[in-house]
Amino acid sequence: MQDKKTQVKQMFDAIAYRYDFLNHVLSAGVDVYWRKKALKLTKLNKDAVLLDVACGTGDFAIEAKKFGVENIFGADFSLNMLRLFNKKSDWIVGRDFQMVAEKLPLKVATVTNITVAFGVRNFYNIPEAFSSFHFALKEKGKVTVLEFSMPTSPLIKIFYQMYFKFILPVIGRIISKDKRAYTYLPDSVEEFDKSIDLVKLFYNAGFKTVKRYNLTFGLVQVVIAEK
Ligand SMILES: C[S@@+](CC[C@H](N)C(=O)[O-])C[C@H]1O[C@@H](n2cnc3c(N)ncnc32)[C@H](O)[C@@H]1O
User: Fold this and answer.
1) 164 lies in a domain?
2) Which of 15, 83, 114, 196 sits most deeply, having the most CB atoms within 10 A of its CB?
């Protein structure tokens, strides 16, 4: 049995070329709205120096660019995802790096913002990653996490579970041709929701204020932590 780090990295390397298509189809395009809303809640400043961790093919970073931010870097441990990010955006060439979230190779206080969309759930050690973020951020710097969560309303929860357990894995398997990817998604969301309290983990990592927002009936959460 491989460790989580190797498993997740191999999975994203394998599905990279179908990732964007699947993402938009399976979320019916709502993922675009979620990224925009998360950045609005962050009150992103044009002078920000932003590191998008678990950047994948770059959709969160590309959205941040629309807010007028010039200094954006992408970090991910999947080389295939990074290559696609490079193809999608001429401005990022040479500025995205193969990095592991848990061990960012940055000096103390180098960036003002760290963003992570749909990445934290995949980290092999979240406390270590949050400490690494705390180290790399300037005073008053912010981390913005966008992540799936389980809806609170019982009715929505039933629809959600049916979609996630029966429909999504079938479509995901056909398009991505990877058996694990979209079976892993619902399992990991449910497990994550039960066992991980992002707000608490941010406070434990030394952040001073942490705010949490629910979007779209609690299908996703935005957590913003300030150093
Ligand atoms: C679901 S994708 C999200 C991509 C992008 N942020 C988006 O919004 O579409 C998750 C990404 O996290 C990366 N990832 C997972 N664990 C990581 C880790 N420990 N360090 C760096 N990248 C990681 C994967 O390679 C993958 O590209």
Assistant:
1) no
2) 114
Tell me the CATH number at 222: 3.40.50.150
Position in ligand 1 atom list of the atom nearest CA 146: 8
pTM of whole model > 0.70? yes
Within-domain flag for 155:
no
Tokens for 31? 């993922």
pLDDT in tens, 56-103: 999 999 999 999 998 999 999 999 999 999 888 876 656 678 899 999
Residue 213 lies in a domain: yes
**Could you give the number of structural domains in the chain?**
1
- 128 belongs to a structural domain: yes
The 3-state DSSP class for residue 125 equals coil
Mutate to test the pocket of ligand 1, among 81, 124, 126, 147 (most ligand atoms within 8 A of CB): 81
**CA–CA separation, 85 and 112 (whole Å):** 22
Residue nearest to atom 14 of ligand 1 (CA): 54
Nearest atom, ligand 1, residue 31 CA: 8
Residue 213 forms beta bridges with which residues? 222
